[in-house]
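Is this the right way to post C-alpha cells for a design question? Let me know if I should format differently. Anyway, here goes:
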C-alpha cells in the first residue's frame, strides 16, 4: 500500500510504502499525485518512506516506478528515500546520477534529517 503523507510544502510529494506495494497502488495513489504536482510546478521533490511493515514490491509496481521517474526525469529536483531495506537503498543509489538535484537514501533512524534535507532551500 502507498500512503500520501501530508504536512510538506507544495513542491514536495511525500509517500510511505506499507505492506506489499502493488501496481494498483501506483496507479491509484502515486501517479495521479505526481501528474497533478507537475501540472502546477516545473520542478518537484519526492520524499518516500519505506515503513517497518513493508513486505515487498511487485514487479509491475517497480515498472510503474521506473516509468513515472523517467517520464519526468529532468524535473525531479531532489529525491529522499528513507529505508532500512538495503536492496532498495542500493538500487536507488544506482540511479542517483540521473537526478540533477540529488538523490539520497536515509536510514529510518535519520527520518528527521531526511525531511530537513528534502525541504531545505536550494
Amino acid at each position: 500500500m502507498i500512503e500520501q503523507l501530508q504536512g510538506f510544502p507544495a513542491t514536495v510529494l511525500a509517500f510511505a510504502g506499507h505492506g506489499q506495494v502493488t501496481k494498483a497502488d501506483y496507479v491509484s495513489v502515486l501517479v495521479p499525485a505526481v501528474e497533478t504536482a507537475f501540472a502546477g510546478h516545473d520542478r518537484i521533490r519526492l520524499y518516500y518512506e519505506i515503513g517497518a511493515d513493508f513486505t515487498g514490491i511487485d514487479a509491475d509496481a517497480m515498472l510503474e516506478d521506473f516509468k513515472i521517474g523517467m517520464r519526468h526525469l529532468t524535473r525531479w529536483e531532489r529525491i529522499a528515500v528513507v529505508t532500512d531495506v538495503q536492496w532498495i537503498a542500493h538500487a536507488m543509489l544506482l540511479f542517483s546520477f540521473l537526478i540533477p538535484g540529488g538523490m539520497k537514501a536515509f536510514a529510518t533512524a535519520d527520518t528527521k534529517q531526511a525531511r530537513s534535507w528534502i525541504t531545505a532551500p536550494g
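Format looks fine. Someone answered above. Worth noting: The mean pLDDT is 93. The longest strand covers residues 44-50.
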